[in-house]
Transposase-associated domain-containing protein
Amino acid sequence: MDRHWINIPNKLSAEYAAGMNEFISVARHSMDSNGMVLCPCCRCVNKKSQYMHVIKLHLIIHGFLSSYTRWYHHGEQIEEVEDEGLFDTEDNVEDSNHDDLDAGLHDDIGSKYFDIGPTSDFNDESPFNVDDKYDALFESLHKSFDDLLEFLREILPEGNHCPMNYYQTRKLLCEVGLGYEQIDVCQYDCALFYGEYENAVSCPVCSVLSISVDD
């Protein structure tokens, strides 16, 4: 099976996008109970597990591990893939993912990157705790946003003022008047402590004490 797309310098090309989608289709079958799989990007090198949408972003920003042409960490049998003469060791990881970004920024290609479907298949039998699941998801989303900012800083002209992370971005939005107002809410979602109930200490519906919403 030809997987030369792994070494394509232009990570925004249609061919690279098609290759990533092929990998995602295979990797879905190896998700753990958290909906995560090992990430084969040049930074995680199959040592760290990520959500599918994070993996796809990593493969664009950091590139696909050059030596990983047989996806045995993701359920693929060795005999299923022919050796196409690509790199044989993981010592040859080359960070060429930011070259030739002059093509491929098209709407039809964008849909190939981000139309990845559901990231996990949680069910009633999963031992995964629901609260932990969403805590991990939000942490992953923040990390993905930070990775995207890193990518933007590298392709923008030198000396740009792109924020470093999610928190700097949120602070910047607040400074230009695009922030948010924190509102207390009943822990059972009965009511918002807003307007006439802004200073109430208990829910006007169920009488439970108010709690603050933490982002």
The radius of gyration is 22 Å. Residues 181-214 form one domain. Residues 24 and 204 are 48 Å apart (CA to CA). Strands lie at 36-38, 49-51, 184-185, 192-193.
